[in-house]
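#struct-pred
JK: can someone run the complex with 4'-deoxy-4'-aminopyridoxal-5'-phosphate? inputs below
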Amino acid sequence: MMEFSDRVTSVEPSATLAVSNLASELEADGVDVVDLSVGEPDFDTPENIVEAGKAAMDAGHTGYAPSNGVPELRDAIAEKLQGDGLGYEADNVIVTPGAKQALYETFQTVVGPSGRGTSSRAGDEVVLLDPAWVSYEAMAKLAGGELNRVDLAPHDFQLEPALDDLAEAVSDDTELLVVNSPSNPTGAVYSRAAMEGVRDLAVDHDVTVISDEIYQHINYGPEHVSLAGLDGMFERTVTVNGFSKAYSMTGWRLGYLAAPEEIVSQAGKVQSHSVSSAANFVQRAGVEAIQHTDDAIDEMVDAFESRRDLLVDLFAEHGKDVSTPDGAFYLMLPVADDDQEWCQEALKDAHVATVPGSAFGAPGYARLSYAASTERLEEAVERLVDAGYL
Ligand code: PMP
Ligand code: GLU
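RT: done, structure tokens with the ligand placed:
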């Protein structure tokens, strides 16, 4: 019998990818599944980006790239972040194969197996805002950390009304706090007052904060607040962003982190000893994406917004009131106490794939990704109604 490390046996496979794999298997057997599981835009990558990728290959950019990223893309990312009012230079940026890798490197850099301060915890304390994207928990555990979770579900998934709860959770023992706005899985966009509340706690207790802004551009109205721009936060924030969602580039695997140089020099070691770098020609396409793709983003975001409206209206017609998300392309549908069973049965009977809320720390809900055509969304609701799930 083989023995595996406690690190790896302590985590489950990604629930989002697991449901999506199951849906793909059913499809391979000829079943027509409406797949609302994985968070992946249904648009092709904009043509100008594809062309830039091909041109980069033709120009011979097929060898190893500098580990932290090609200078052209690090510069372009720094310029974008400066445009957002954040004081990052190219040296503050690590280009990664997907935002997931940027997050993984940050957890490996900041979180360790021996707890800080007076904590009786075995590992460094990581505070998550529930519901939270599935991989934060796994990344914390893989780094040897221990979780402390604050539940936003009773506050309509908003952070501002939960600041007292957050203040209870964050202490001098806390090493890392993860904030993701717009949020996966709820679509909530946190207010400036909420972010300032996070800032006050982080500064008071000397906590490092990950600000995962991968859904920054998929926002239907509220102000987007970047934590690194708040007083006292630049030096303790790791800003994570990527190309998968805004530019519909999930398969290209391109993302980045921006952080103070002392964090970059540590996290860069993880990158250089693991993936080496993001793919060279993909990074060149990233320059084109970041500099010349505003119109395509606007079109995609408009489409997501009308799909959100459609879905919220359809659920209301069937007596289900859902919190209207302000960003990302996810919606939390209240289902049954046993959300895992609900999702499994809905996939089996109605051939509609969704992810159980409990995978995100939100039992009783199913997460739906509405990055699908209006026809497929209508079809999904019809199937759920016909099979008695709504
Ligand atoms: N953060 C969040 C909140 C996400 O939903 C995702 C989805 N994949 C990621 C990070 C990672 O994205 P990627 O690795 O495709 O850039
Ligand atoms: N982030 C997306 C999701 O939550 C993509 C899958 C993943 O990486 O988890 O569905």
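RT: quick notes.
The pocket of glutamic acid (ligand 2) is lined by residues 14, 16-17, 38-39, 133-135, 184 (CB under 6 Å).
The longest helix spans residues 294-317.
JK: thanks, will look after standup
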